[in-house]
């Protein structure tokens, strides 16, 4: 009975996040991802593009980080948790996630890449509200170093 209830809840969560699930499936057509493993309730994949992106219960990372992701290298865990934070926000917002968080996050990334030299306020990618919310949801903090801004897990970070 407990297993049946768990499956029912999982199906309900996927239906609640249906726009993100469909967007993730479209992403899969073009990105041709390779499955890594499950991190809490999120399926992790690698594909050929830079960075990370989350579509509800699916998160995609750059193929160049595959070995570090598979070995759960402590240097990449904050970034895994950051995308996990987006997935948690997707669970909270459901069908409103894409217009409230997903699309603004993607546009923010594009604006940063195209206009970084004009707007100096775009220095820290993680200052944008969508990224702050994901970091807060996942227990990740942003630390400024000599090399730029990096993510670090806090005590509230999800454990594997």
Describe the protein.
The chain has 160 residues and is of the alpha+beta class. The protein has one domain. The chain is 50% helix and 21% strand. The protein has six helices and six strands. It has helices at residues 2-16, 18-31, 66-70, 77-93, 97-115, 129-138, and strands spanning 34-39, 42-47, 52-55, 58-62, 140-145, 148-153. A four-stranded mixed sheet has the order 1-2-4-3. Strands 5-6 form a two-stranded antiparallel sheet. A hairpin with a 2-residue loop joins β3 (52-55) and β4. It is globular and about 55 Å long. The protein starts with a helix and ends in a 7-residue tail after the last strand. The mean pLDDT is 82.
Give the secondary structure arrangement, pairings included.
Layout: H1 2-16, H2 18-31, E1 34-39, E2 42-47, E3 52-55, E4 58-62, H3 66-70, H4 77-93, H5 97-115, H6 129-138, E5 140-145, E6 148-153
Parallel strand pairs: 2-4
Antiparallel strand pairs: 1-2, 3-4, 5-6
Helix pairs in contact: 4-5, 4-6
From the helix content, strand content and strand pairing, which structural class follows?
alpha+beta
The proportion of strand residues reads 15-25%
How far is the N terminus from the C terminus? 26 Å
User: What would you call the shape?
Assistant: globular
Q: How large, in whole angstroms, is the Cα Rg?
A: 16 Å
Taking pLDDT < 50 over at least 5 consecutive residues as the criterion, the unreliable ranges are none
DSSP strand tally: 6
**What can be said about the biggest beta sheet?**
4 strands, mixed
Order of helices and strands: HHEEEEHHHHEE
Q: Indicate the percent of residues in helices.
A: 40-55%
């Amino acid at each position: 009975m407990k297993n049946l209830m768990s499956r029912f809840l999982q199906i309900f969560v996927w239906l609640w996040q249906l726009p993100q699930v469909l967007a993730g499936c479209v992403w899969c057509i073009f990105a041709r991802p390779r499955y890594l493993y499950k991190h809490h309730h999120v399926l992790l994949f690698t594909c050929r593009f830079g960075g990370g992106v989350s579509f509800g219960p699916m998160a995609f990372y750059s193929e160049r980080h595959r070995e570090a992701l598979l070995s759960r290298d402590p240097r990449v865990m904050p970034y895994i948790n950051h995308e996990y934070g987006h997935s948690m926000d997707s669970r909270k917002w459901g069908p409103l996630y894409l217009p409230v968080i997903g699309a603004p996050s993607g546009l923010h990334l594009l604006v940063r890449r195209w206009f970084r030299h004009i707007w100096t306020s775009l220095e820290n990618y993680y200052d944008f509200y969508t990224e702050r919310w994901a970091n807060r949801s996942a227990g990740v903090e942003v630390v400024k170093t000599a090399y730029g801004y990096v993510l670090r897990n806090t005590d509230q970070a999800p454990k594997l």
